[in-house]
Amino acid sequence: MYIRTRNDPSYRLKLIYRGSRNGISNESFRKKCKGRVASLVLIKVKDSNKVFGGYSSIGVCSLGNDFDDDLIRHGFQFYNSSDNFIFSFEDSEDTQNMKISRVVSNSHAILDHHASGFNFGRSSLCMINQSLYLTNYIGNYERNLDTNKIYTIEEIETYFVYQ
Questions:
Q1: What are the residue ranges spanned by the domains of the chain?
Q2: Domain TLDc: where (predicted)?
Q3: From the CB of residue 70, how many other CB atoms can be counted at a distance below 10 Å?
């Protein structure tokens, strides 16, 4: 498997949010990470070696008014993307053993709602302040991650991804 590096000329990463620097909360995350920019989120959870993450080609929050009017339910705004995915590393030191779940319901790739920092597929991978939810009970992403768990976030970083 080929893994791109930080110096790969095809992609550039710009760190825009770090929990230990900016505070781990919905408000601080949404303030720093808003907009329609391809984004990579990495989350280290407490009391574990696990690392979770997600990639969205359309951004993760405050995406604007380009959403499907038919997909507004109780203030939830869903955004369409066919290439989003979420992933996990069981051990932060072992980058070869990764689990990945791709979006299967493209029209529900990202849920933008004020009650969360980010929300891939309505709680497939969701930040609510210092908690990371992995429930995927709706099934908007493949069911390859160890789901139906809530973790406490130790550190979180978000990068804008540029080509």
A1: 12-162
A2: 1-162
A3: 8
Residue with tokens 């979180």: 156
pLDDT given at position 93 = 78
List pLDDT tens digits, range 33-50: 988 889 999 999 999 989
Strand 76-79 relative to strand 39-45, pairing: unpaired
Q: Which two tokens stand for residue 3?
A: 């893994």
Rounded CA-CA distance 132/117 in Å is 10
List CB contacts of 1: < 8 A, sequence separation 6 or more.
Answer: 96
**What single letter denotes the amino acid at residue 19?**
G
Give the bridge partners for 160, in sequence order.
14, 39
Cβ-defined contacts of 16-25 (< 8 Å, 24+): 16/158, 16/159, 16/160, 17/156, 17/157, 17/158, 18/155, 18/156, 18/157, 19/153, 19/155, 19/156, 19/157, 20/155, 24/129, 24/130, 24/153, 24/156, 25/117, 25/129, 25/130
Cβ–Cβ under 8 Å, residues 30 and 158: no
**What integer pLDDT is reported at residue 1 of this predicted model?**
45
